[in-house]
Specification:
The structure is a single chain. This protein is an alpha+beta fold and 236 residues long. It has a single domain (6-232), classed as Roll (Nuclear Transport Factor 2, Chain: A). The chain has 5 helices and 11 strands. The strands form 2 sheets. It has a 7-stranded mixed beta sheet with strand order 2-1-6-5-4-3-7. Strand 1 and strand 2 (78-80) form a beta hairpin. Helix 1 runs antiparallel to helix 3 (40-57) and helix 3 packs antiparallel against helix 4 (59-66). The relative contact order is 0.16. Keywords: Signal. This is DUF4440 domain-containing protein. Residues 1-19 form the signal peptide.
Protein backbone atom coordinates (compact mmCIF):
# COMPACT_ATOMS: atom_id res chain seq x y z
CA UNK A 1 0.00 0.00 0.00
CA UNK A 2 1.36 3.41 -0.90
CA UNK A 3 1.44 5.76 2.06
CA UNK A 4 -0.08 9.14 1.19
CA UNK A 5 1.86 12.07 2.62
CA UNK A 6 -0.16 14.89 4.14
CA UNK A 7 0.87 17.23 1.37
CA UNK A 8 -0.05 14.65 -1.24
CA UNK A 9 -3.52 14.24 0.19
CA UNK A 10 -4.05 17.99 0.27
CA UNK A 11 -3.06 18.28 -3.36
CA UNK A 12 -5.20 15.28 -4.23
CA UNK A 13 -8.31 16.76 -2.66
CA UNK A 14 -7.67 20.08 -4.36
CA UNK A 15 -7.40 18.38 -7.74
CA UNK A 16 -10.60 16.42 -7.10
CA UNK A 17 -12.59 19.46 -6.00
CA UNK A 18 -13.77 20.09 -9.54
CA UNK A 19 -13.94 16.43 -10.51
CA UNK A 20 -11.16 16.92 -13.05
CA UNK A 21 -13.15 19.64 -14.82
CA UNK A 22 -13.76 23.35 -14.54
CA UNK A 23 -17.01 24.48 -12.99
CA UNK A 24 -19.60 25.95 -15.33
CA UNK A 25 -20.87 29.48 -14.76
CA UNK A 26 -24.06 27.98 -13.39
CA UNK A 27 -22.20 25.82 -10.89
CA UNK A 28 -20.01 28.70 -9.74
CA UNK A 29 -23.11 30.85 -9.30
CA UNK A 30 -24.82 28.14 -7.28
CA UNK A 31 -21.78 27.78 -5.05
CA UNK A 32 -21.78 31.50 -4.30
CA UNK A 33 -25.51 31.32 -3.52
CA UNK A 34 -24.94 28.36 -1.24
CA UNK A 35 -26.87 25.89 -3.35
CA UNK A 36 -26.08 22.22 -3.74
CA UNK A 37 -23.48 21.17 -6.32
CA UNK A 38 -21.47 18.01 -6.83
CA UNK A 39 -18.19 17.90 -4.92
CA UNK A 40 -16.18 14.72 -5.62
CA UNK A 41 -13.48 15.75 -3.15
CA UNK A 42 -16.01 15.41 -0.32
CA UNK A 43 -16.44 11.71 -1.20
CA UNK A 44 -12.66 11.26 -1.38
CA UNK A 45 -12.32 12.88 2.04
CA UNK A 46 -15.12 10.72 3.50
CA UNK A 47 -13.52 7.54 2.16
CA UNK A 48 -10.03 8.44 3.40
CA UNK A 49 -11.45 9.37 6.80
CA UNK A 50 -13.33 6.06 6.94
CA UNK A 51 -10.15 4.10 6.15
CA UNK A 52 -8.16 6.07 8.72
CA UNK A 53 -10.83 5.53 11.38
CA UNK A 54 -10.59 1.77 10.83
CA UNK A 55 -6.87 1.87 11.61
CA UNK A 56 -7.28 4.14 14.63
CA UNK A 57 -10.42 2.76 16.32
CA UNK A 58 -10.96 -0.65 14.77
CA UNK A 59 -12.46 -2.04 11.57
CA UNK A 60 -16.04 -2.76 12.65
CA UNK A 61 -16.15 0.27 14.93
CA UNK A 62 -15.39 2.43 11.88
CA UNK A 63 -18.10 0.69 9.88
CA UNK A 64 -20.67 1.26 12.64
CA UNK A 65 -19.80 4.93 13.10
CA UNK A 66 -19.97 5.79 9.40
CA UNK A 67 -23.07 3.81 8.33
CA UNK A 68 -26.62 5.13 8.12
CA UNK A 69 -29.34 3.41 10.14
CA UNK A 70 -30.69 1.84 6.95
CA UNK A 71 -27.32 0.84 5.46
CA UNK A 72 -27.10 -2.65 3.95
CA UNK A 73 -24.36 -5.22 3.32
CA UNK A 74 -24.17 -8.68 1.80
CA UNK A 75 -22.87 -11.39 4.17
CA UNK A 76 -23.63 -12.98 1.62
CA UNK A 77 -27.38 -12.45 2.18
CA UNK A 78 -28.58 -8.87 2.47
CA UNK A 79 -28.50 -7.63 6.07
CA UNK A 80 -29.05 -4.35 7.86
CA UNK A 81 -25.49 -3.21 8.46
CA UNK A 82 -26.07 -1.73 11.91
CA UNK A 83 -27.81 -4.87 13.13
CA UNK A 84 -25.06 -7.12 11.75
CA UNK A 85 -22.28 -4.92 13.12
CA UNK A 86 -23.80 -4.48 16.60
CA UNK A 87 -21.44 -5.87 19.20
CA UNK A 88 -19.10 -7.30 16.54
CA UNK A 89 -15.54 -7.36 17.87
CA UNK A 90 -12.89 -5.57 15.85
CA UNK A 91 -10.21 -7.78 14.30
CA UNK A 92 -6.70 -7.30 15.67
CA UNK A 93 -5.60 -5.75 12.38
CA UNK A 94 -8.05 -3.78 10.27
CA UNK A 95 -8.36 -4.10 6.52
CA UNK A 96 -6.71 -1.26 4.60
CA UNK A 97 -8.27 0.31 1.53
CA UNK A 98 -7.87 3.14 -0.96
CA UNK A 99 -10.40 4.79 -3.31
CA UNK A 100 -9.53 4.67 -7.01
CA UNK A 101 -12.57 6.27 -8.64
CA UNK A 102 -15.47 8.44 -7.51
CA UNK A 103 -18.89 8.91 -9.12
CA UNK A 104 -21.23 11.70 -7.97
CA UNK A 105 -24.77 12.79 -8.85
CA UNK A 106 -25.28 16.24 -10.38
CA UNK A 107 -26.76 17.66 -7.17
CA UNK A 108 -24.10 16.05 -4.99
CA UNK A 109 -26.59 14.21 -2.79
CA UNK A 110 -25.17 10.74 -3.54
CA UNK A 111 -21.71 9.44 -4.39
CA UNK A 112 -19.99 6.14 -5.10
CA UNK A 113 -16.44 5.15 -4.28
CA UNK A 114 -14.69 2.13 -5.75
CA UNK A 115 -11.17 1.01 -5.01
CA UNK A 116 -8.86 -1.64 -3.59
CA UNK A 117 -8.53 -3.33 -0.21
CA UNK A 118 -5.82 -5.39 1.47
CA UNK A 119 -6.23 -7.71 4.47
CA UNK A 120 -3.61 -8.62 7.06
CA UNK A 121 -3.51 -12.22 5.79
CA UNK A 122 -2.41 -11.06 2.36
CA UNK A 123 -5.80 -11.27 0.67
CA UNK A 124 -6.74 -8.42 -1.62
CA UNK A 125 -9.74 -7.29 -3.62
CA UNK A 126 -11.99 -4.43 -4.71
CA UNK A 127 -14.77 -2.59 -2.88
CA UNK A 128 -17.80 -0.45 -3.68
CA UNK A 129 -19.27 2.03 -1.19
CA UNK A 130 -22.38 4.17 -1.73
CA UNK A 131 -22.20 7.47 0.18
CA UNK A 132 -25.23 9.63 1.05
CA UNK A 133 -25.11 13.25 2.12
CA UNK A 134 -27.03 13.50 5.39
CA UNK A 135 -29.63 16.23 5.78
CA UNK A 136 -29.50 17.07 2.10
CA UNK A 137 -31.70 20.08 1.33
CA UNK A 138 -31.98 21.01 4.99
CA UNK A 139 -28.59 22.54 5.65
CA UNK A 140 -26.46 25.51 4.62
CA UNK A 141 -24.66 24.24 1.51
CA UNK A 142 -21.77 26.61 2.19
CA UNK A 143 -20.84 24.43 5.18
CA UNK A 144 -19.22 21.01 5.11
CA UNK A 145 -21.66 18.15 4.64
CA UNK A 146 -21.83 14.96 6.69
CA UNK A 147 -21.48 11.80 4.63
CA UNK A 148 -22.49 8.28 5.64
CA UNK A 149 -22.53 5.07 3.66
CA UNK A 150 -25.73 3.25 2.72
CA UNK A 151 -24.18 0.25 0.96
CA UNK A 152 -20.79 -1.44 1.13
CA UNK A 153 -19.50 -4.53 -0.63
CA UNK A 154 -16.10 -6.12 -1.06
CA UNK A 155 -14.95 -8.82 -3.46
CA UNK A 156 -11.64 -10.75 -3.28
CA UNK A 157 -9.30 -10.86 -6.26
CA UNK A 158 -6.46 -13.20 -7.14
CA UNK A 159 -4.31 -10.25 -8.20
CA UNK A 160 -4.36 -6.82 -6.53
CA UNK A 161 -5.69 -3.87 -8.48
CA UNK A 162 -3.10 -1.59 -9.98
CA UNK A 163 -2.95 1.65 -8.03
CA UNK A 164 -3.77 4.66 -10.25
CA UNK A 165 -1.62 7.76 -10.35
CA UNK A 166 -4.59 9.81 -9.15
CA UNK A 167 -8.17 9.30 -8.07
CA UNK A 168 -10.50 9.63 -11.05
CA UNK A 169 -13.83 11.40 -10.65
CA UNK A 170 -16.95 11.49 -12.79
CA UNK A 171 -20.00 13.69 -12.19
CA UNK A 172 -23.46 13.17 -13.67
CA UNK A 173 -24.69 15.79 -16.12
CA UNK A 174 -27.06 18.48 -14.88
CA UNK A 175 -28.50 18.91 -18.39
CA UNK A 176 -31.60 17.49 -20.02
CA UNK A 177 -34.71 15.95 -18.54
CA UNK A 178 -33.67 12.87 -16.59
CA UNK A 179 -35.43 9.79 -17.90
CA UNK A 180 -36.93 7.93 -14.93
CA UNK A 181 -35.41 4.52 -14.32
CA UNK A 182 -38.00 1.82 -14.83
CA UNK A 183 -39.01 0.20 -11.57
CA UNK A 184 -37.64 -3.33 -11.32
CA UNK A 185 -38.67 -5.90 -8.76
CA UNK A 186 -35.30 -7.12 -7.54
CA UNK A 187 -36.66 -8.89 -4.47
CA UNK A 188 -36.53 -8.24 -0.75
CA UNK A 189 -33.01 -9.66 -0.55
CA UNK A 190 -31.60 -6.94 -2.79
CA UNK A 191 -31.19 -3.17 -2.60
CA UNK A 192 -31.30 -0.10 -4.82
CA UNK A 193 -31.36 3.68 -4.61
CA UNK A 194 -30.87 6.96 -6.41
CA UNK A 195 -29.79 10.53 -5.78
CA UNK A 196 -32.34 13.21 -4.90
CA UNK A 197 -32.19 14.63 -8.45
CA UNK A 198 -32.28 11.16 -10.03
CA UNK A 199 -28.98 11.53 -11.94
CA UNK A 200 -27.23 8.62 -10.18
CA UNK A 201 -28.81 5.22 -9.58
CA UNK A 202 -27.48 2.03 -8.06
CA UNK A 203 -28.67 -1.53 -7.71
CA UNK A 204 -27.36 -4.55 -5.81
CA UNK A 205 -28.99 -7.89 -6.53
CA UNK A 206 -28.67 -10.96 -4.35
CA UNK A 207 -29.43 -14.19 -6.19
CA UNK A 208 -30.87 -17.42 -4.82
CA UNK A 209 -27.49 -19.16 -5.13
CA UNK A 210 -25.98 -16.38 -2.92
CA UNK A 211 -24.11 -14.82 -5.85
CA UNK A 212 -24.64 -11.09 -6.33
CA UNK A 213 -24.30 -8.28 -8.82
CA UNK A 214 -23.80 -4.54 -8.36
CA UNK A 215 -24.25 -1.74 -10.87
CA UNK A 216 -24.13 2.06 -10.88
CA UNK A 217 -25.44 4.35 -13.64
CA UNK A 218 -24.91 8.08 -14.30
CA UNK A 219 -27.04 10.44 -16.38
CA UNK A 220 -25.04 12.09 -19.22
CA UNK A 221 -27.61 14.68 -20.27
CA UNK A 222 -29.54 12.46 -22.67
CA UNK A 223 -28.90 8.84 -21.69
CA UNK A 224 -27.91 6.56 -18.84
CA UNK A 225 -24.33 5.25 -18.74
CA UNK A 226 -23.51 2.19 -16.65
CA UNK A 227 -20.24 3.30 -15.07
CA UNK A 228 -19.71 0.43 -12.62
CA UNK A 229 -20.84 -3.17 -12.81
CA UNK A 230 -19.62 -6.51 -11.50
CA UNK A 231 -20.80 -9.96 -10.48
CA UNK A 232 -19.51 -12.03 -7.60
CA UNK A 233 -20.00 -15.73 -6.91
CA UNK A 234 -21.29 -17.09 -3.62
CA UNK A 235 -17.74 -17.86 -2.50
CA UNK A 236 -16.51 -14.31 -3.07
Amino acid sequence: MRIFAAVGIALLLASCASGGRSFSDREQFNRVRGKAVANPSAIVAAELSFARLAQEKGQWTAFRETATDDAVMFTPNKVNAQAWLKGKADPKTAVEWQPHKIFVSCDGSLGVSKGAWQAANGNTGHFTTIWRQEGFGQRDFRKDAEWKWVFDDGVPLEQPLEEPDFIETEVASCKGNVTPVSATDIGSGSASGQSIDGTLTWQAIANADKSRSVSVSLWDGSNWNKVLTYEASASE
